[in-house]
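FIELD: query
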Amino acid sequence: MNGGPILVIKFAALGDVVQAFGPFAAIRAQHPRQKITLLTTRPYAELLAGSPWFDAFHAEGRPPWRDLRAVARLALWLRRQRFERVYDLQTSGRSSRYRIFVGDKAEWSGIARGASHPHANPGRDHMHTVARQREQLEIAGITRFPLPETSWLLADITRFALPERYALLVPGASPGRPGKRWPVANFATLAEKLGLPVVVAGSTAEAPLAAAIGGIDLTGRTSLRELATIARGAALCIGNDTGPVHLAAAMGAPTLALFGADSDPALCAPRGPVVAVLRARPIAAITPDQVLARIGSGFLGDLDPAAALAGDAPEPRG
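FIELD: result
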């Protein structure tokens, strides 16, 4: 390679972006002096602006196809940048089509037709996200996978006046996938039995869940960086398969993720220094006592931090 600009594509969602921290760090290690631009969406351009991995951001990476002017602007921008290599970590139909805009001169890591470094493993869709992306980058010639630095995410959270020790609960999940949500009554029972003050995090729409659980309601009150900092200080994080739980795990919070039938932890369980999983189909079949038993079973020492963050750890135990 000649030292030209590099493009990384990753649009969303929060959990997927967090699980790409490792690939982001590996790409930067591979191209320490080249300009690396992230093509993304506005929330993640704002989140990653302080990271050590990117020199520039293009936050209009996913315009509606029906907005022909916006698509044309993106196509023209992609063509004019003259990228030397593209790492498509989104690997969707949309992102693959962007290869047409970039042009054939750029090397391409992904699943787009004609890619110079195709991730052609027929079993890629059955791999955990972290393992899949690592294999993709290895095919593209990347051999160094440093631990992703997360201190850049830290923010001032003194305005929340949190207690010295607390448990972080994340009762929400995608509104369109109610099967991913552990019943709020179970979270309320758990909060009563934990023996720690509880902090409830989530979006503004999840405020009724926080009201039902009790504790310190931070729903809709935190930025993503503030949430990351709150998670880093938590004695424990318990929540559904949703972005804030992935963020908490990456920040080092001992994390217990609850899964039902709507998502498979073998493919997308949070990764971090200390992570465990409980799964039942349906998710409501998990009882608060089972969660308490899992917390008390010693899972906090199960995983090696370096291996977990690098993607080499065994799958979280159910």
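FIELD: remark
Residues 68-81 form the longest helix (14 residues).
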